[in-house]
Amino acid sequence: MMFGGIEAGGTKFVLAVADDNLKIVAREHLDTTQPEAMMPVIIDFFTQHPVTALGIGSFGPIGVNPQQADYGYIKKTPKPGWADYPFLPRLQDALNIPIYWTTDVNVAAYGEMLAGAAQGKKNLVYITVGTGIGAGIIADGQIYSGISHPEVGHLLMHTLPDDHFAGVCPYHQYCLEGIAAGPAIAARNGRPGRDITRDDPFWQVEAYYLAQACVDLTLTLAPEMIVFGGGVANQQQLMPLIRSSFITQLNGYVDTPPVDNYIVHAGLGNDAGIVGSLLLAKSLVAKTVNAPSV
């Protein structure tokens, strides 16, 4: 039995097929362009490599409520051609197999729970910090969603007294993504994060906002672990600063596991999303999760 996965990111798509042991036997990377160019390639890939079920983690916002008319659609997005695009219905029509449809951060969170840093945990948050900021939430072993999927990247932040950066989010001046994602880092420093030295004081500012998000998530969700992924979060100097700022901001109000075991790097690295997609495809067949299927 073969399983398929799609990690549909704003910059690139990863397509993969794996066997019953989740060993990847075929894989392809595609630059994210417009859907009319990409969808025939995606459909051809899974036609050439037939699968029993497919898991998709997509950039958003997306429709995740099966009771709503926009279920399976990519909703408002500045990416050309993708706004209001029926991603899931298009693949349903072409492949006619069970499909698990969710966000890119949710599949990464699921992958980390079953095969990464959060193995053995049933309640966790996976945060990706890169071009944008998003988070997948696992509650009691299940991907959490309500009327929509959570948008943790748009949590409003309490800014540092001497931080007058206006933010880059067109919706919220001082949301987490607007002041701490990759474009915000470049805008406030005049250069991308990869070009900022490790000892630059800016990283303490970045850590403060990411730690504040961890405090908010700790107080609202009480997860067993918070896992960070994404290009910005992979900066080696950042994690100790986040942990230190988290301790200061939480100020001992609630108990958490030791911070080195509570706020951690993704164990699967850049493969968290595609591994999670494959695991969710397998779960549809095994019926081990309550997944919306088609």
Automatic annotation (TrEMBL):
Signal peptide annotation: none
Catalytic activity line of the entry: D-fructose + ATP = D-fructose 6-phosphate + ADP + H(+)
Cofactors that this protein relies on: Mg(2+)
Molecular function GO labels: ATP binding; fructokinase activity; metal ion binding
Zinc keyword on record: yes
Gene3D superfamilies for this protein: 3.30.420.40
EC code(s) of this entry: 2.7.1.4
Keywords: ATP-binding, Carbohydrate metabolism, Kinase, Magnesium, Metal-binding, Nucleotide-binding, Transferase, Zinc
EC top class named in words: transferase
Keyword Nucleotide-binding carried by entry: yes
PANTHER family: FRUCTOKINASE, TRANSCRIPTIONAL REPRESSOR MPRA
Family: Belongs to the ROK (NagC/XylR) family.
Record protein name field: Fructokinase
Species this chain originates from: Schleiferilactobacillus perolens DSM 12744
